[in-house]
Design a protein that fits this description.
Layout: H1 3-6, H2 23-41, E1 46-47, E2 53-55, H3 56-62, H4 68-73, E3 75-79, E4 82-86, H5 91-100, E5 110-119, E6 131-140, H6 145-161, E7 168-173, H7 177-191, H8 200-208, H9 219-223, H10 228-237, H11 241-256, E8 262-263, E9 275-282, E10 291-297, H12 301-304, E11 312-318, H13 319-327, E12 334-340, H14 343-355, E13 360-362, H15 369-378, E14 381-387, H16 389-394, E15 396-401, E16 407-411, H17 412-419
Parallel strand pairs: 1-5, 7-8, 12-13, 12-14
Antiparallel strand pairs: 2-4, 3-4, 5-6, 6-11, 7-9, 9-10, 10-11, 14-15, 15-16
Bound molecules: adenosine-5'-triphosphate and magnesium ion.
Adenosine-5'-triphosphate binds next to strand 6, strand 10, strand 11 and helix 13.
Length: about 425
Amino acid sequence: MTSTTNRRQQPIQRPKGTQDIFLDKVALWHAVERTATQLLESAGYSEIRTPVFESTELFKRSVGEDTDIVNKEMYTFEKGDRSLTLRPEGTAGVVRAFIEQGLHRQPKPLKLFYSAPMFRYERPQAGRQRQFHQFGVEVFGADSPAADAEVIQLAMRLFERLGLPNLVLEINNIGDSASRQQFRESFCQLIEPVLLEFCDTCQTRFHTNPFRMLDCKNSACQEHYSEPTVARFLASEWTSEASQKHYTQVTTILDYLKIPYQRNHRLVRGLDYYNATVFEITSTHLGAQNTVCGGGRYDSLVEQLGGPSTPAVGWALGMERLVSLVEDCALPALDYYIVTDQHASALALADQLRQQGKSVEVDLTARAFGKQLATANKRHAHSAIILGEAEASSGQLQIKFLSSGQQIEQSRDDLLKSCKLPEA
Ligand code: ATP
Ligand code: MG
């Protein structure tokens, strides 16, 4: 026997910046994906699955030639005489399919979501992989501010359902393409005299895509934007009246929905196709890579890729970053936990709620309500129903939302009605 046949083979390792997801972790992924899918399907969104690779041209024409993604991060390969690229983001492929499959002929608006791996050749670090996963939504054919507000509302509600109520929503208006042209001229005039004080990347971007200078993480560069003339210019002066009106309406709806947000006049996003509303959702628990979700309006992209003019708005969230946040705070495993000393009535209510598809547990002990509520929290129930003697006789229940602590009164009948699907 030769020595080579005895030698153990070196194990092969996974490529840098990729992950294996298994056992407990994959269960967590399933739970997050299930929560997101259920929420979006309950709002009339349907899934779209597109290829993992597309023609390279698609990303050049949509994401933009002067972006980091297209310049240095794409996994591009040749097959025959074709140049193909592993998708670095989801929107371009969805828009390509929207046009190619004639989805613009579907009733408007068309509301889609996707959940898929993405590939970017970036320096791997915490929260940044070369293969990562995005969950995203796209709404086609609605130009109203309500569409922007709805996609934001769904993202924020998803985070709440996952037990992450403390994420920060930042929002900005980056105007339409005509006002962006005007921005370019006025901004360059303001910045040119001090351009040499900016970092090398900003100096390059000044000539290729000055808008992206605002995105720079370098604090010395950012200092320039706190200078009053520049700050005032960024705050409002350059966007068109129509886009300002749209933006005001979006924020008015968010106020009405009680969704808190912070205006950030320097928020631009890293992809070229956005216009009007842009937003990012961040968490202070994620370290340097703190953006969980990013999105905005992209009203010209469908036309730019050869389809009929179609307004659109959407977002994408990073699954790895989201799962790492959820890991620390277990998911709601249960819809209702009934806190009670009226067991017969509670068992009957649980029965009725379960028939409506809800998961329900009844506290079977005779402990004080405070102790029962503590168990409801430990079970990670979404809400506790308090059913004591007074509630049993009046039929008016107390419902406590355990993530916020908010408590409302609801009649037994209304609670059951709110769970029940109307008959066709
Ligand atoms: P970042 O500023 O973190 O680089 P981005 O602007 O490049 O983000 P988008 O292209 O908008 O990100 O993607 C949306 C979301 O996808 C991000 O907010 C993030 O959660 C996630 N994401 C983006 N790139 C990566 C990556 N390399 N690894 C893991 N998640 C990522
Ligand atoms: Mg990036």
